[in-house]
């Protein structure tokens, strides 16, 4: 069995994916709000898609839109997005206890895909700071 196939059949992976379904309506609504805000701000479809792919977190996108529309300098837009996303620094400290043993490249890839709701779902099952079997497959399922 290939590593990917083994991961897809792992019960922790499946539970992580299933747990995120609870949040799916809220995620869809947030994506819709952000998309409508981008359209109303005058961004073209290609620019809106580019912003969705390059600006991490819908809250940073929403904070950037009025600044873009007003012609603010790029450093102000970057600073606003940076401040909004500072919460991820706090999240990364929480994840370190569970992901610190992984190679740096893998931690960076997983870290880029993690969000607020992944941490909430993960904390329900593993509230402590100790590393346990099944945590990494669960996280991968939650971001799948």
Kindly give the count of domains.
2
Work out the helix count. 10
- Percentage of β-strand residues: under 5%
Major β-sheet, in short?
none
The number of E-state strands comes to: 0
Helix content: over 70%
Please state the structural category: mainly alpha
Mean pLDDT: 89
Gap between N and C termini, in Å?
20 Å
| Rg over alpha carbons | 17 Å
Could you give the order of the helices and strands? HHHHHHHHHH
| Shape category | elongated
Identify low-pLDDT runs. Answer: none
Provide an overview of this structure:
The mean pLDDT is 89. The protein has helices spanning 3-8, 11-21, 24-40, 45-54, 58-69, 74-84, 87-99, 104-113, 116-125, 135-143. 76% of the residues lie in helices and 0% in strands. It has 2 domains: 3-24 and 87-143, no CATH class; 41-84, no CATH class. It has 144 residues and is mainly alpha-helical.
Question: Which key terms come to mind for this protein?
Answer:
144 residues; mainly alpha
